Each structure stands twice: as structure tokens, then as C-alpha cells.
Amino acid sequence: xxxxxxxxxxxxxxxxxxxxxxxxxxxxxxxxxxxGAPKKGASDRAEVIGMLSTEMxxxxxSDEMAKYIDYFTMSEQNEKLDNIMKVLVNESKxxxxxxxxxxxxxxxxxxxxxxxxxxxxxxxxNTNNFALFSPxxxxxxxxxxxxxxxxxxxxxxxxxxxxxxxxxxxxxxLDKIFGELRAKIVPLVxxxxxxxxxxxxxxxxxxxxxxxxxxxxxxxxxxxxYDFEAGRLDESEHPFTIGITPGxxxxxxxYYPNLFSSALFSSIHEGGHALYEQNISNNLNGTTLCTxxxxxxxxxxxxxxxxxxxxxxxxxxCYYQELLSIFPEQFEGIAVEEFYKAINKxxxxxxxxxxxxxxxxxxxxxxxxxxxxxxxxQIKVADLPEIWNKKMEEYLGVxxxxxxxxVLQDVHWSGGSFGYFPSYTLGNIYSAQFCNAIRKEMPDFxxxxxxxxxxxxxxxLSEKIHKYGKLLTPAxxxxxxxxxxxxxxxxxEYLESKYKAIYNLK
Amino acid sequence: xxxxxxxxxxxxxxxxxxxxxxxxxxxxxxxxxxxGAPKKGASDRAEVIGMLSTEMxxxxxSDEMAKYIDYFTMSEQNEKLDNIMKVLVNESKxxxxxxxxxxxxxxxxxxxxxxxxxxxxxxxxNTNNFALFSPxxxxxxxxxxxxxxxxxxxxxxxxxxxxxxxxxxxxxxLDKIFGELRAKIVPLVxxxxxxxxxxxxxxxxxxxxxxxxxxxxxxxxxxxxYDFEAGRLDESEHPFTIGITPGxxxxxxxYYPNLFSSALFSSIHEGGHALYEQNISNNLNGTTLCTxxxxxxxxxxxxxxxxxxxxxxxxxxCYYQELLSIFPEQFEGIAVEEFYKAINKxxxxxxxxxxxxxxxxxxxxxxxxxxxxxxxxQIKVADLPEIWNKKMEEYLGVxxxxxxxxVLQDVHWSGGSFGYFPSYTLGNIYSAQFCNAIRKEMPDFxxxxxxxxxxxxxxxLSEKIHKYGKLLTPAxxxxxxxxxxxxxxxxxEYLESKYKAIYNLK
Lengths: 506, 506
Description:
By secondary structure, chain A is mostly helical. Helix content of chain A is 63%, strand content 3%. In chain A, strand 2 (241-245) and strand 3 (248-253) form a beta hairpin.
């Protein structure tokens, strides 16, 4: 080596920063595409995205990167690295190995396939034609199986995909966790269905001026501690959060003029994601560690704010008055208790993204079971509609009238995102565990929310979780914050106590 | 050469496309920065811009580029190129020579200096402190003189800078053109000042709801043929147009709740720029020729729409009724004739960007005279405030009370944009020449506008000017369209006939 250690460190950091900056540029362009970019520019823009992604891919898998990884993983140099550098080297190696092993031509073929498949999926969904999408899905599944063979796997092929979204997660663990959860949720949903009391959520389907909805979303986001000088709220077809740098974390929602609850809870949900990205430590800025550590932990933050805070009675005890002042006619004569029950109405339904916080997990489990079986070649793509409908009946007691409202409803598979769905329920589980930990330190958690002291909660989350970015693994964060491994009991406890009270169950 | 001719052509096109795609990404990021990007993200974003610009610079000055240029400029290959490829090779060579000749370290020093200087200029302007900005400006001027020595020049050092913004333009030509124009405008402004009749433009300073201003801007832009599926209208501090690709050309304006005329005429002005960029031929898409051919020709399009169309009597005969329906109270009792005269009020004033279409040219000439003398080392930066004020008195008969409203008012010099200012007046001159050519083909030009048939005018401009992008030089376009070289007489004629009528002059 001609260069000395310090120069190598500085050069590596510059190199990583360049990768991150390509990612930042892509972030802006994605945000722009979804928030009103002129549609006639879309095809040229797709090519720009392709060019920038290719450059980023090249940097992450270059000989120069290999040289840095080799150098810094030698024990003599590795010992001298600080913690951030150590994790950064590991993370870079993980990405390098993942992508370098796949022949470039094969990877390109896969990227083109998935981008075509998304268009085909959309058409298949719109025309309720699974047969149209089926051959594409089959090829995508086969590619994933091939990739797993290249990457290698332990115990179960699906583990490799799970690990990508949630480092350390395995089929064994998930089967157990999801099994426990399902055993509690299914009977709870059944009791709720049988309950004489059913909340009236028709109160949300009046006229709700979109500007006023926006005003109330902004009001709540500010109370949560979302920093509008480091972000902005826009509208898009599907709500999303994009963290470019901690100083620029943007969220979107979607307003329905005749449905109050959707935009607000989307705003709170995305606000939860955004608080994570806005509060990552400055030390990590300019590195690829400056983002959430996993999809599951990310989802724990959005779910925490959306459900454990935003759908709590204390929250509305505090903010219902403000809501009434914005929509006095729409909520006239509706007491806060009634409003609270309405936003927590549980009903087994067909569409995951519209599901309540209780049945949502059952939707996730169905997808998990199917993905696991597909990747292990235990079921065939062609049989998916039948399998889907059977599982819906078994888990939720409802059967889709067609594939558009069934197996074709989600975009994920068309993009090849196998292993992603479990993150949603992992997020719910983690959020309940984190909430339990907060309550130990802040026994008056509910009263604090009732007094509007959400900033203290945000600070706690930032200090315990957000600031670490990708520096700690999901399991490390969970252990540090709660002293436990993943444990679905807290979620079960929360759901049972909340919904038994709302539905007057024993 | 191992590769054959066709492969070289295809590779070169791909290479150029990559440069263009970096430019597209930068375009989106610039637009984003000026239309509401969170301010806490600004410093990280500046670094992303730096990285992308550096990559683009490297591509434009690489050994690979040199190889293409060498290959395609050999007569054997050059003869086989189609016209687009020929111009593309020339344009690439022009850029290569321009940047390659300057040592990279020197160029970097200059880029850092100008980016610092812009911040300093802003502070100097805000605190009315020319001495603060003066040393920076001196260094910028010296850099430019040094660059000109490296690049070489013909007859006059300033010619090299002029040629950058307006290929083919020289000091000799400009002195003659500006001299003729000034000789006509100065006495015309004097007669206007002495006129008993003065339009009342206080009618624009009532309350004008910003949403309604936007609505009317959109209405007019649609009538002009601006394609909202290939663009969008936003608000920014200073109005601008950014043409990313013909399918994505965005414009901005700035709304003043108590000043009607500003946002509308900015919208029309930027709309004129945008029509140019939206209507460049598809053949040029993906190349660096897919933009306006010069700043002067670009400005001719914006000025054409803003002044020759938007401030014409025919235009308001057609659209005043619509305006009245949007602002019935604000314009109650004001006849269209009175309104027309008010939007054409002429008054010698201090600030260029607020000047009317007549005195605007005098502001430009002052800057031109100063730049020419600076670059030829005939005056000193330290003496600029005095020189400025003297020229203001001489050309416009008004003297700035301070440097903030005088020599410090424009951003251009802090960024090193010497040679840019003349484009504004060249644009006015060209626009009048183009208008004369249209009138020959469409003798009922005024009546057409009066009937709201602006799309026919747009199509004429697109067919004669827009579609060529950078494929033709400004002089070629002018000659093809008008059969003449640049000639200020048409602008003089237009201004004299319009303003003599408005101000009842002989």
C-alpha cells in the first residue's frame, strides 16, 4: 500500500459520500416524479434515473471499492478504525458481496423485467386479469430463487430475502412470532365481529375541505416535532416519506374531500418515519449509514405515532377541541369518546392498505406464508389466486370477489420485493415493545400525551433509536432500548386491552 | 481505429446523452432548490450539485471526448456525418476547448470564488457596502481577463465573452447597434417625460388575491399554447424558466398580493421562454443541442410574448373581459384603453428588473459599457459606483441614492457572468425583427391576437425558430426568418409608434 492509513480513511469517506450523493440526487428525482412532475417528461426522466442508478451501482461494486474493503478488513487496519468506520466497511462489504456476485447482464435483465412487470401488474389489476401478470411473476420468483442460490442461504431460502430487509430475521423466528400473534388476534377479531356495539365511522364521510385537512395535518406534525425547516408536506397518489439527508426529509399524504381519517393518519404515519430520518446523528451524515437501520424499525416509528399515539384516547382528549374548531359542522354533537371509537373501528376487509391496526397483521401473514412457499417452490404462481382466497377465508373470514381485490392488490411482487411484507407487522411488534419501555421511564405517558407533551416522546425516541441510523442492527437497538429480544406479547397486550375496552368485551 | 464508424457514432451519442442526463438531474435539483426545498438541506444539496457538475465537467473534457472529437473532425469521417452530428461535434469541441485550456486547479479556484462572491454580494447589497464586494469583483474580473488570454480573442477581449452567450456577436457590431438604439430611445424617453398625459398605474396596487392571480396566469399561458402536461407553474423568489427536456419545461412567477401586473407579465415572459424549450424538435432530444441557441434568441421569445403580444392593445381587447370577471371590483370603471396605457407606463427609474420595455434597454447599455471597459482594463473596479451613477444620470436622468439601488443591484457579476447583459436588449431587437417577419406572412397579426388566435403565432415561432434548438446559430435563424442581419430599426419603429400613440406625441 502506498497510501498511509489516514489518507485511505479520508479517501474511503469521500468515495462513500459520492455514492450517498448519487442516492440524494435520485431521492429528489423520485420525490419530484411523485409530486407533480409533468407526465410528458416521465420517459426521459426514467432514463436519467437509470443512468444515476447505474453509476451508483458501479461505485458500490468497483475495483476501487474492493480495494478499500480488502484494506480495511485486514485485522491490522480494522483494529484502528473507529466504530462508524467499522460499520461502514461492513455495510459496504455487504452491498458489494450482494451485487458483485450476480453477473451484470443477469442483474440488468432482472431490473428491466421488474420495471416492465410493474406496468403489466397495473394493467392486470385494472382489468382483473391475473393470467396477464402470472408469467412475469413466475420469472421474478425464479430470478429470486436463482439469486438466493448465488448468494447462499442458511436453513431456509427465504431467510436470505428476510435478512435483506430485516438483518438477523429468520423464518424460524418469524413462524414462531407470527404464530403467537395470530393465535391471539384471530379470536379477538371474532369477538369484535360478534360484539353488539359497533362504532359508527360514517362520521368521516362528510365534506372535508382539503385545505383545512392540510392545516390540521400540519398542526399535528408540528406538535409531534416534525421540523418543517428540514422537510415539507406535499400531496401524492400514495403517501410516502423520503429522507434525503437529515436536513431534508419530505413527506406526502393524499387528501380525500369526502373522507376525513385517511389523510390525517397518513400524515402522522409518514411523520413518524420522518422523525426517524430527521434525527439521525450528524456524525453519520454523508455516509450510507445515514438512514433507518431496517424496514421493521422504520415501520415501528410510523406505527408508533399513527396507532399508539395518534389513535389513542389521550391524543384526542388533547387535540379534539382543535379539530372541532376547524370542522365545527362536520363533528357537531359528536363527543370525543365516540370519535375515538370511530377511528378505531375494526372490520375484516379485503384490502391491506385500508385495514385497521388489528386485522392489518393478518393481511401481512397471508403474504408471508405465500412468499415463503413460493421461494421454497412448494406452491406454483399459477395457483396463487386460489391459495390467496383460501387464506383470506381462513385468516379473515372474507373472500375477494375477484383477483383485483385479492392477489393482485399489492405492487410489491411486481418489483421483486419478496421479504418486505413482514416488516409491517414487525414494526407493529417493535412499536409496542418500545412503548412499554417508554412507559417504564415515563409512567405518566398517557397523561403526557393528554397534555400535548409529544416533544418529550419524540426526544426519547430520537435519543434511543433515531440518532443511531444504521450504526446499530435492529436486534441491537431492540435489546438496548427494551432489554429484550423481539416479543409479540406487548403488542397482543396492547391490542387486547384497547379493543376489549372499545368493544365492551370480557 | 478498431471500432467502425457506426459504432463510434452510436457510442458518441450515448456519451453525449450521459452528459445531458447529468444536466437534466442538475436541472431538477436547481428547480427544487428555488421552489421550496427545505432550507436545512441546502448545504448538503450544494455538495450534490458540486459532485454532479464535476462529473459533467469531467465527461465534457475527458480523453474519451478528445478521442471522439479527433475522430469526427477528420475530414474522412466528418463528411459522412449528418447535420445534427456535425453540429454536435462542433458544439462539443467548443466546450472542450473552452474548459480544457484552463488548468483544473484554476477553474476550481474560480468556481469557489464566484460561489463565495454571490453570498458576499448579497450581504453588500443588503448593507449598502460596495467596499465589501469590491475585492471579490476585482478578482473575478482578473480571472476573466486571464481566461480570455488563455482562450484567445479577436480585436477586443470582450468579444470572447460576448461570443459565449451570443455566438458571432462582437463589440464592433454591438457598439453600432446600441448606438443607433440609444440615439432614438433617449429623446423618446425625454418626450414621454415631458408629456402632459401620464398613465395612472396605481390601479394595480389594490388587493389582488394570489390564487386568482394564479388562475389568470394559467388561463393566459394555456391560450399561448404552453403545455401543462409538459410543464408546471410554481412560485419562487425570482421568476425563471428551466427546460429540462421538451417534455418537462417548468416556469415560475412571484405573486405580490398588492401589485397585479408583476406576476402576470412574469408568467407571460417565462411562458415565452418555455414555448421555445417545449417545442424543440424531438430529433435533438437527448443531445446537448436540445436547448435555445443563444441567450439573445431565448430572450427574444420571452420579450415577444411579454411585450409585443402581452402589452399590446389587441391582447387586452381580447382578454380584458376575462380579467374583469376575475377581479371585478379592482378594475371597476376602468376601460380597456386606460388599462392598456397603465401597463405601458414609461418612467426612468433606478432598478433594471422593474423598468418598462423602453428604458430597460438603457439599463442594459450602461452595464455593457462598464463591462467592456472593465475587461479591457480601462476602468477600475473601485471606481464603479461613481461611473455607474454618472452613466445613470447621462442615460436615464436619475441618480441612485445609494449603491444598493445602483451598482450593487444585479447578481450577474458576482457569478462572473460578463457578456450576458447585452442578451436582454438583443432579445428586444430580435423580437421586433421576428414580429415584422410574422406580419408579412400574417398581415392581420393584430386582429388575430384580438380574436385570441395566439396558437397560430406560437406555431409559426415553433416552426421557424423553436424546433431548431441549437442546430442553427442566432445569425442563421435571424437570416432564415427575416432575410436580414440584426437590425435595431424594427424595434425603434415599434417603440416609437407605440409610445407616441400612448403619450400623444407628434
